[in-house]
Design goal:
The structure holds 2 protein chains of 2 kinds. Chain A is an all-alpha fold. Chain A has 24 helices and 2 strands. In chain A, a hairpin with a 4-residue loop joins strand 1 and strand 2. Chain B has a single domain, classed as 3-Layer(aba) Sandwich (Rossmann fold). Chain B is built from 9 helices and 10 strands. In chain B, helix 2 crosses helix 3. Chain B is globular and about 60 Å long. Classes of the chains: A mainly alpha, B alpha/beta. At the A-B interface, helix 3, helix 8 and helix 11 of A face helix 2 of B.
Chain lengths: 554, 262
């Protein structure tokens, strides 16, 4: 019998996900999990996710404290609306094309969300101290963490796939619809299972400071792998005739490593009947699922049993780099701002949670332009003025990380930003926000932009250097406006909660349209108006000097 | 009588650096053990190994007369633990947190609420029963942790700096509580840097230094090694006699007369 702890007395009022999970109790118990304990942990976690935390004692009012609304669930409708765009897939009467695009999108979204937003749940050290010291097995703690993430991940997946699922029932029939629901659910469990196995393996084999770095590298590695996979999958199809929407598919056994294709194969079997390639891929899907289930079973308790290692080991010396010193001197206009600059630089250098949130999306944003650059170089195509123009704007992809940066700078373990601010002799928010924005510009965006620009300079020489500089100046201004738009209280002054996982995606949506329009206008002006490059340069420089001196002063 | 806790040659390394090089000691039922050592000596690491939060690299551990094996959890129902850092689930109320902990020990809601309410009252924080832990002071959090370590009536207590953040009155209550818990037959193993308390309350004192237990015995016996208070004994055994020189160095640095490079 379940007892009620967290406010809701009647079972009828319990959230749907708990009722569903209750039905799975025998499954949990079969695998040696204490279901009653797991449910208690899960319910406590979900209660906490629904509450906002006060950064400093006494800061939040009673009324605010009593608000219990999980932001994550209440904003899922945004994803459902985005998924409407995927209805365009149904103009092609080719199931394989439809579902390859769908599952590629689903997996990229799932892995990037999983790594950036839910890794912190899996790697939460607090649980091992507060729960691990009670008579609760590592298996039970692991299952509670996995189920906690799964609730969010499955809801998220169904929201982003909603339109395609409904359209599948309508256009492709009930059987296809049911298969899609099953496989969409499976896809979210795959991404969760693979991530858990990856973390468990890394935690088992590494120690201390090296472990923290390897975790970060593995997150980046997986992000890069997903984006590369996405690109390779796009190579399978070729639009033969855009008028009649004829698509040719070159699927072969050679593509067997692209596991999202395994999820598509059952549709091939249903629509086109028996074909060896579909059968093999479907078998791979079944075997892959079994393999992940087995790996999960043997590894799900390894994360918690090794998590304490994260707290140990040598700390890296926090010396200031030359770039940090030079940037602080040249870009900060008073000593207070300079102090905030160094604070923000060191915090983003050392805080694992910050890196976990941001680095996978940086990796993804870098891979697209680099892959596009190298794939454009293939073949015998000479470098013409036209494709040079395309290359020239590849660094603009860096801007896609700006919404994520704006969100990531709001959070910090133990609200370090709030403490720093309260302890400062002068309580001025402007210098703090300016310093943080400048750190993000120099520490995160400048290296990314420089790498991609460097590739272009190698190819075209210094001919287009001003266009590249202008791109960076534009990015700096966009970063300022995005930081200003999304800034709430103070930088690094909120504690991360799972329910806020989708913030970055929502702001990306709001951000993307105006940025695309502005960038496009700038590209056109620079390309077709004589000497506009210099006019744009002067204008952007003036705007940059303005925000760097006066920005955020309100 | 058999020891309730027994460690033999327990070793632990972090990043290749040995922290525990061969820790050996035993604890008899009903004893109060003061476990002391310099910062970073491995006191918390020892407790975390006993509680299964960290794996030992070598050595053997026996608890309640049974060897401790990886994956064992049932024995934790007989242990109460107060961690060094007063970290809690901030957005829960005290009532919710204690209910949560009690439930993990398999207790019934009515029992948990009754016990928690009375214990909070005794420690002077009953009014905050429904308050969020994020609004609690360090001392109040420490009290919640102390309650959570006792709510299931354990046989052994592992308390890491239990008096940290407590006001003078609460310190008195907790000290008295320790004495009464001992009379109830409970075993208490606690780490602290407050030497005065350790000296007065402990039946036996263990001093951990450089990866080994370098002293083990009642204070009256240890005193034979060096005259004076436990603090002086601790300084002698750990070879520390530079407090005056270091205080001078600190002061001159504060006044701007520093010799260290940036």
């Amino acid at each position: 019998m379940m007892r009620e702890v967290f406010g809701m007395d009647e079972r009828a009022k319990e959230p749907v996900y708990l009722k569903i999970i209750d039905k799975l109790a025998p499954v949990y118990q079969t695998f040696g999990i204490d279901y009653r304990q797991m449910r208690t942990i899960l319910k406590m976690k979900m209660t906490m996710d629904g509450r906002k935390e006060a950064a400093v004692q006494g800061m939040s009012s009673k009324a605010k404290q009593n608000e219990e609304k999980n932001q994550f669930f209440s904003s899922l409708w945004v994803y459902a609306i985005i998924s409407v765009f995927f209805l365009l897939l149904f103009v092609y009467d080719n199931w394989i094309f439809q579902y390859t695009t769908y599952f590629s999108y689903i997996f990229v979204m799932l892995f990037s969300t999983m790594l950036a937003n839910f890794s912190n749940i899996l790697l939460d050290v607090k649980d091992s101290e507060l729960i691990g010291t009670k008579p609760v097995s590592q298996k039970t703690i692991g299952a509670a963490k996995a189920t906690h993430v799964a609730i969010y991940l499955v809801s998220f997946t169904f929201a982003i796939g909603l339109a395609v699922m409904l359209a599948t029932f309508y256009f492709n029939g009930i059987l296809a619809g049911l298969i899609l629901i099953l496989l969409t659910f499976l896809a979210s469990l795959w991404s969760l299972g693979l991530t858990i196995v990856m973390y468990a393996t890394v935690l088992k084999h590494f120690d201390g400071e090296r472990l923290k770095n390897i975790i970060a590298y593995s997150q980046i590695g997986l992000s890069v792998f997903m984006v590369m996979g996405y690109y390779l999958i796009s190579q399978i199809f070729e639009v033969i005739d855009p008028e009649t929407f004829l698509v040719e598919m070159n699927l072969s056994l050679g593509h067997a490593l692209l596991f999202p294709m395994w999820f598509v194969a059952p549709f091939g079997l249903v629509q086109e009947g028996f074909q060896t390639v579909y059968l093999v891929y479907t078998l791979l899907l079944i075997l892959g699922t079994l393999a992940i289930a087995v790996l999960y079973h043997f590894n799900n308790d390894k994360i918690d049993s090794n998590l304490q290692k994260m707290n140990k080991g040598k700390t890296q010396p926090s010396n200031r780099s030359v770039l940090e010193k030079v940037a602080a001197k040249t870009l900060s206009f008073d000593s207070l701002e300079r102090a905030y600059f160094h604070f923000a630089w060191q915090l983003t250098k050392n805080e694992r949670e910050f890196k976990t949130r941001l680095y996978p999306s940086i990796a993804s944003a870098m891979v697209f332009p680099v892959v596009m650059f190298f794939s454009s170089l293939r073949g015998d195509q000479p470098i013409t003025a036209q494709n040079t123009l395309t290359f020239l704007y590849l660094p603009y992809f860096t801007m896609l990380t700006i919404p994520m940066i704006a969100v990531a700078t709001q959070f910090s373990v133990n609200y370090k930003g709030r403490w720093q601010f309260e302890l400062s002799p002068v309580h001025a928010k402007g210098p703090f926000f300016r310093a943080v924005t400048k750190v993000m510009l120099i520490k995160i965006l400048l290296p990314m932009y420089s790498v991609i620009s460097g590739l272009i300079i190698i190819l075209t020489g210094l001919t287009y250097i001003i266009q590249l500089v202008n791109g960076f100046l534009l990015m700096s201004i966009i970063l300022y406006f995005e930081m200003k738009r999304s800034s709430q209280e103070l930088p690094f002054s909120r504690k991360y909660a799972a329910s806020e996982a989708n913030q970055g995606c929502m702001s990306s949506l709001i951000f993307f349209v105006p940025v695309f329009i502005i960038s496009f206008i700038m590209i056109l002006v620079q390309a077709f108006v004589p000497y506009a490059v210099w006019g744009v340069f002067i204008g952007l420089m003036a705007l940059n000097i303005w925000w760097m001196k006066k920005g955020f002063n309100n | 009588m058999e020891p309730i806790v027994e460690l033999v040659d327990v070793m632990k390394k972090f990043d290749g650096k040995p922290v525990l090089k061969g820790v050996t000691f035993s604890v008899m039922p009903g004893e109060i053990i003061g476990y002391i050592g310099p910062n970073g000596a491995g006191k918390s690491t020892t407790v975390k190994i006993i509680l299964g939060m960290l794996k030992k690299d070598a050595g053997t551990i026996r608890l309640f007369n049974q060897p401790l094996n990886a994956g064992d959890v049932a024995y934790k129902a007989r242990i109460g633990y107060v961690p060094e850092n007063a970290e809690l689930y901030e957005t829960l109320t005290a009532k919710e947190y204690l209910l949560f902990v009690g439930e993990l020990y398999g207790m019934e809601e009515k029992e948990i609420i009754g016990k928690a309410s009375q214990m909070m009252d005794a420690l002077g924080i009953k009014e905050s029963f429904h308050g969020r832990l994020s609004t609690f002071s360090k001392g109040m959090r420490q009290k919640v942790l102390i309650i959570s370590s006792l709510i299931h009536n354990p046989d052994i207590l592992f308390w890491d700096e239990p008096l940290s953040g407590l006001d003078a009155n609460s310190v008195q209550v907790v000290k008295e509580l320790l004495v009464k818990l001992k009379k109830e037959g409970k075993t208490i193993f606690y780490s602290s840097h407050v030497m005065d308390t350790v000296e007065k309350l402990s039946d036996r004192i263990l001093i951990l230094h450089d990866g080994y237990v370098i002293a083990d015995g009642p204070f009256s016996e240890l005193k034979k090694e060096a005259e004076g208070t436990l603090e002086q004994l601790f300084n002698t055994l750990t070879g520390f006699d530079q407090h005056e020189a270091l205080a001078d160095q600190f002061l001159s640095g504060m006044k701007g007369d520093f010799t260290h490079d940036a």
